[in-house]
Q: What sequence folds into this?
């Protein structure tokens, strides 16, 4: 009888709660305004024969490489950052290899690593979700082949200094070290200028968050040219669809739109953090477009908070299942007008229920 590999049979499932998302969507870290009007204009002008042709990735890769200040042979466009993670796992991991993550973090790292047959080593974050650099170094072995770091991290919003990531890559020369900068625009720190310090260092970027192109599924992976040649061999030549390739240059060219949106997100983040502080609700200062708060001491408290916000038309994300996050909820920030809706609903929920302030993880 046909059956999948053992690594596939034992994979944990990832079931994002996409169905029934009626209300203001502050649960998935999406752009709450949508994409640039220039992208919509390009969509309307898209000729029918463009959809009948196989997409040509390389011309847009050259534009994105120039935008990011890297060479074309250092960059690969991918079907979202998820494909970039998958390609790294398929290229460098095999049964018997070890892969490191710092938990809590993006759950697809573990899934793709396990699918490649690797043993996943989960290193708990330090106090207040700080990056546990010393503990990671202690976990390095000759079998370590991949280390994935979300920077800023999801769901905590914490940021790892670039020097620590470069040092980690230096100490693990046989491992691919991924700096996943999906939320770069909201913090401004990038390791890209240090990319050539280590040939085993990779940077991922997405156009799903600040650029509002989540539905088009387009990201970028940057690394040493020799390593990128191996990743290209693993990648489908038509992995990024023609619609995404047509729209991405328009999105990149409208940096005024991105700057305005990011400015409103940062203002909204400051407003939310100020409101939480005034209400005595514990939260972790964030460098991303979301804030993680402690809604109570238990997962039941978090679920009740999420439901009370939903009844007021605001969707937020329960993160209680993440390591060290029991009772925690993540709230996405967006436009000023959306924060104007969020804060009164939040105040009402907080005033109507007992917030249990647990100890810091």
A:
């Amino acid at each position: 009888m046909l059956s999948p590999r053992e690594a596939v049979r034992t994979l944990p499932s990832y079931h994002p709660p996409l169905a029934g998302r009626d209300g203001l969507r502050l649960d998935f870290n999406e752009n709450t305004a949508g994409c640039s009007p220039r992208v919509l204009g390009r969509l309307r002008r898209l000729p029918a024969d463009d959809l009948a042709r196989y997409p040509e990735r390389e011309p847009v890769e050259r534009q994105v490489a120039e935008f990011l200040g890297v060479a074309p042979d250092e960059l690969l466009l991918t079907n979202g950052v998820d494909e970039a993670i998958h390609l790294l796992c398929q290229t460098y991991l095999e049964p018997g290899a070890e892969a490191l993550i710092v938990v809590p973090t993006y759950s697809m790292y573990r899934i793709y690593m396990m699918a490649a047959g690797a043993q996943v080593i989960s290193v708990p974050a330090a106090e207040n979700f700080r990056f546990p650099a010393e503990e990671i170094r202690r976990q390095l072995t000759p079998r370590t082949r991949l280390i994935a770091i979300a920077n800023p991290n999801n769901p905590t919003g914490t940021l790892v200094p670039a020097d620590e990531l470069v040092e980690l890559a230096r100490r693990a020369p046989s491992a691919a070290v991924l700096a996943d900068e999906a939320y770069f625009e909201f913090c401004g720190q990038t390791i890209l200028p240090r990319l050539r310090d280590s040939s085993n260092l990779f940077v991922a970027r997405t156009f799903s968050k600040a650029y509002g192109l989540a539905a088009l599924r387009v990201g970028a992976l940057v690394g040493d040219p020799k390593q990128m040649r191996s990743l290209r061999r693993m990648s489908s030549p038509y992995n990024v669809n023609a619609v995404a390739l047509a729209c991405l240059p328009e999105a990149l060219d409208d940096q005024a739109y991105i700057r305005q949106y990011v400015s409103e997100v940062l203002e909204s983040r400051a407003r939310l953090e100020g409101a939480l502080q005034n209400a005595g609700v514990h939260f972790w200062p964030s460098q991303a477009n979301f804030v993680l708060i402690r809604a109570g001491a238990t997962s039941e408290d978090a679920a009740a908070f999420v439901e009370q916000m939903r009844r007021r038309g605001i969707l937020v994300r329960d993160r209680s299942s993440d390591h060290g996050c029991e009772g925690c909820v993540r709230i996405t920030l967006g436009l000023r007008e959306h924060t104007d809706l969020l804060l009164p609903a939040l105040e009402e929920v907080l005033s109507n229920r007992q917030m249990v302030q647990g100890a810091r993880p």
About this structure: The longest helix spans residues 255-279. The first strand starts at residue 24 and ends at 25.
